[in-house]
Amino acid sequence: RTSPPPAAFQAVINISVAAQRPEEPRPQVVPDVLSRVQACVYLVHHPSCAIVRRGAADCLARITPLKDAAVIAALINLNFDPDKDVVASAMKAVTSIVAGRALPNGTLSTMGTILPLKNGSKRLLSPTRRLQPLPSRPVVTRQYLDEMLDSDGDGWHSYMYWSHSFHHGQAAVVDRALIVKAEVDRRGLPGWIYTRESLLDDLLEHDTQELHALGVQLERESEEALVAKHDKMVHSRDVTIAETRALQARDLRALEALQPLWTEDNTETEGGNVWETAEEVEGREAKKREKEIAHLTAASEHTSQLIGMEEDQAKTIKRLTREHEDQMARMELEMKDDGADLLEKKQAVLRARQEKRLQQGKDGIYGDLVWSVVAERVKEAETFVACLSSDFLSDPVCLQELEFAFSLGKKIVAVVMGSMPGMLDSPAPGVSHAGGNRWWPPQGLGSQLGSTPPVNLYLASGPSPIHSVVFAELYAILLEGVEGELRKLQAQVDGEHTAKINEARLRQTLFKQSRLDSRKEWMLQGSNG
Description:
Number of strands: 5
Structural class: mainly alpha
Strand order of the largest sheet: 2-1-3-4-5
Largest sheet: 5 strands, parallel
Strand content: under 5%
């Protein structure tokens, strides 16, 4: 230990010079022992070559002064190194520095070697003692967005709500809207659009969900009422049985107090004098036997009375318990019958309301009943696509949907699907199809639709609107809306992930420092034996 093998140390330096990356500083070999120690400490931690690091640890085992706390701490820090061989070499070096155990030939002794984990200790291997990895960053995908925005829980999310006048609009305009919507769906942006048939189907589907929800709600309420009443009856039964047991115990104690006792009078204890005749002795013994027989008979009768009373009391308790159980069973049957009757009555009322709503849907009347279903579809969508035409502007249902989407803060995309009032008038100078700047924005809808000219698929060139440049522009706008939602949600998820990462790093730092401080103290105290 006083003079380390120069060849071994020089070999470590030569290998490290060849193995180090160009950007890493290369330590110089100097005769000073302290500088060589510092060089080996550097080599233990920095090079990527495991052979160099193990060799540097072996050199430290021979050239480091005994119980050098700084070098011991540097070696102990390798406890969390992924290379197990480097950890083993570092712990052997710590053993040599702490205990000074080295063989005459310069090799390290295995006696008292400090291993990365204490021998026989399962505590350090438990999950709570291991270093936990940092959480990975979640990436928001379309599927993740669909799951988060699926408000009705049907496993499907509508990105777009296409509003058009399907009740009173022209057939060509309705067909154009359906074709455009189908192509957008095919490209990965599903949406919802109503037709006469789909509205009725949606109303019927909503009817089924309402009936199921009503059944579930009444079943839950009935179950809660049944449990409450059952608990009340159980409490009443327990109180009754407890009171009955108290009365029975009192009666039993009173009967036990009447237990016949054996008493002896003076005439029974006296006798045996020399003046007593044989007849007197025989008479006294006969009386004593008679008294004993009478006492035994009375005690037997008293015991029989006690046993009979206990049996009668047990029968009474069983009868009370059975009566209460029968009463609870009748109560459960009555409540189930009442619940079935209540469900039937409420279902009848709900079906009458649903029939009225279905008829309104067939007639194109959007009362409160129909609007409640349509409003849910508007709420679920992220973008509201207004399929504009002259029929749209005169349809109160379309205007109601537009106003509702605007009040919810939805992104509104205006698409011209049919002729608009004044759109084909003589244009204003420099404005294409502006109608003298009178047709856009439509009167009274400036706040909802804005002043930016809409996407005009009505005047799009080509055999089909979906093959035009205008459709590509529309799809880009719709896609940007979805991507914007993804970015917004990703930013929110990233913020939460950053907070978790910071917390995890703090926990790792505290965990590492606690483990290292504990091991360092354990090693310096020589507790390794």
